[in-house]
Design a protein that fits this description.
The chain is α+β, with helices and mostly antiparallel strands. Helices cover 33% and strands 19% of the residues.
C-alpha cells in the first residue's frame, strides 16, 4: 500500500517523453521522430523502459531499442540479422548473428517508408509461427545404458 506523499511510478511512455525533453537537442527530436514512425508502422506497439534508461518497443517480443549517445541515436533491432533490408538502412552492429542497428547522426534524413517497412517486418517475424515456436520438453531424457 502506498503512503501519501509518494509519487506514482511513471509509465514507460512517460519516461520516454521525459528522456526526449531532457535531451533537448537534435537527439531528442530524432528519438521523438523515430518513436512516431514506430507507432505509425505498428499501432499495437508496446513501449517499455529497460536497462536503466533504454526505450524499447515490443510486439510479441522486442522490436527495437532507441538508445541515445553523445553523437548518435542508435535504433537497434533485436532480430535485425533475420530481417531483409533491401534499402540498406542497417549501418551498425553488422557483424553479429542476431542484432542489427541504424545509427542516426545530426542532420541525417530518415527514409520513412523503408524504416516503416523494416519495423513491420520485425513485427511479422515476432508474430510468425517460426518465432513463437518453442521446443516442448515434457520430461527429462533418460541416459542410454
Amino acid at each position: 500500500m502506498r503512503k501519501s506523499g509518494f509519487q506514482k511510478e511513471k509509465s514507460p511512455s512517460q519516461m520516454i517523453d521525459e528522456r526526449i525533453r531532457e535531451l533537448g537537442d537534435w537527439r531528442g527530436k530524432m528519438l521523438s521522430r523515430l518513436r512516431a514512425l514506430i507507432k505509425q508502422a505498428d499501432p499495437e506497439v508496446v513501449e517499455e523502459w529497460k536497462w536503466r534508461g533504454a526505450p524499447v518497443w515490443s510486439h510479441a517480443g522486442m522490436i527495437c531499442t532507441g538508445e541515445t549517445y553523445k553523437n548518435v541515436v542508435k535504433m537497434t533491432f533485436a532480430k535485425g540479422a533475420s530481417l531483409e533490408d533491401p534499402s540498406g538502412l542497417f549501418n551498425s552492429s553488422l557483424e553479429g548473428n542476431t542484432r542489427r542497428a541504424i545509427d542516426f547522426h545530426d542532420g541525417d534524413k530518415i527514409d520513412e517508408k523503408a524504416l516503416k517497412a523494416l519495423i513491420r517486418a520485425a513485427v511479422a517475424l515476432n508474430t510468425s509461427v517460426r518465432a513463437s515456436a518453442r521446443p516442448v520438453r515434457s520430461q527429462k531424457r533418460r541416459k542410454s545404458a
